[in-house]
Design brief:
The chain is mainly alpha-helical. The chain has helices at about 10-35, 40-55, 70-90, 90-100, 100-115, 115-125, 130-140, 145-155, 155-175, 190-210, 220, 230-260, 265-274. The protein is built from 13 helices and no strands. It is globular and about 60 Å long.
Amino acid sequence: MPSTVHPIPTPAALLLMGVALVYLRGWYRLRGGLPNLLSVSRLITFVTGVVALWAAVASPLAGLDHQLLTAHMAQHLLLMTVAAPLVLLGAPVMALSYGLPQRFLRSILGPLLQNRPAQSLGRIISHPVFCWLASTVVVIGWHVPALFELGMRSAGWHEAEHACFLAAGLFFWWPVIQPWPSLERWPRWRIPLYLFLATLPCDALSAFLALCNRVVYSHYLVAGRLFDLSALGDQQCAGALMWVCVTFAYLPPAAAVTIQLLSPQSRASQAEAV
């Protein structure tokens, strides 16, 4: 029986709007006291990331993921390679902490962040090795047919899948972007290698989906077809989309870090440190 298009999740859209408003409040308060701390470009970047997040989980695209694996793959890519880095580039921790009620910060968030076990956990989950492993496990794990089909059958598991991809994206980009209040855990020269290694599991998965001569996910064999695209053709498009997007998402930051490390200023600072 053909599956139906899922309705646009209004609660998700409202939640994203609320997060954007809290960020805007914090950004405005910081700009009032420290105008050079958070630029307008930070605000635009964060809002763009929220819009990308909305496009992935609450826009009409979200209603197509049960008909097209390509749309489903686009959701994952928006969450991990677009929304997550843009949100982190907006310095969300700083702005959101100033946007939240001060009573909440003093009574709940402050004591939690000062708790030693919480600080130890923070050091673990912000380490580049953990961030790489977490993102890889999420990408590969949710594309295992059994888990993938579970997400297609259950609305709750489908939402959990989206949450996992967003969290994995935030973890993955954290060592690369290093937003406040992160500390540098690795020498910067390892970041291009980190990004290169991250492409390998994605390339393997995308090649499998694009070159496999059978439909991997049985859900799309019975789903209502759109655009006269066969289930196998849809799967090949999804694999190609993943390969292209991951390559173009990871290559520019790797090149930027490499150029930064090879710049005369960076070499001079390294020489002074020695």
